[in-house]
Amino acid sequence: MGGGVILFFLSVNRTAESMPPIFTGEVAVAADPLPQALVITAIVVGISVTAVALIMFIAMYHKFGTTNWAKAMKHRRGIDIR
Predict the structure, then answer these.
(1) Could you tell me if residue 13 is inside a domain?
(2) Number of separate domains in the chain
(3) If we measure between CA atoms, which residue out of 47, 38, 44 comes closest to residue 9?
(4) Taking the complete model, does pTM exceed 0.85, yes or no?
(5) Using CB atoms within 10 A of its CB, is residue 81 exposed (0-12), middle (13-18) or buried (19+)?
(6) What 3-state DSSP class applies to 30?
(7) Domain-embedded: residue 82
(8) Domain containing 40: what range?
C-alpha cells in the first residue's frame, strides 16, 4: 500500500514539459517539489517503524526465548510454558 501511494504522489503533477526544480537552463515549468518531499518523508518514517519493530522483536526473543506472544505472556506471568 505504501509503495502505491508513493508512486501515486510521484506521478500526480508530472508533465512532459516539467523539469526538476534544480536546473541550469531556461525552463518554463518546474516540477512541484512537495510530492517529492512527502515521499522522502514517507520512506524515512517507514524505515524507522520497521527498525523499531525489529528491535522490539529481537529484544522479546532475547528476554523470553520465543517470538510467540502467547508464550512470552505466559513466561512473563510465571506460568510454565512446557
Answers:
(1) yes
(2) 1
(3) 38
(4) no
(5) middle
(6) strand
(7) no
(8) 2-77
